[in-house]
Amino acid sequence: MRNEKGRSKRGKGESFTLQQLQVAREEYDEEATLCVFRLKSLKQGRARSLLTQAARHHAAQLTFFRKGLKSLEAVEPHVRLVTEEEGDESVRRVQMMRKVMRVVMQGLA
Hints:
By secondary structure, the protein is mostly helical. The chain contains two helices and no strands. It is rod-shaped, with a radius of gyration of 36 Å. The termini are far apart.
């Protein structure tokens, strides 16, 4: 392209040899590859982090339900004593809760 005075618009820029351009391209490709590798590594780290969080959450749920089951088992004899006068329906409810908790625990394990 030429400007109004007929001079080239490119000006007096540097000129590069084909070998210099090839070296620059190789360096660029190497840096781009490293950048992609780092990005993939970061994404994998996030996935591992999510997996770790899920495992910790699962372990916390198991602990919570185990403690709940132990509490029910500890309370059951006292409930039996109190409910003997009221009838067997309350005892059956507590036993049913224990069974449900055991099924839940087996499903989580």
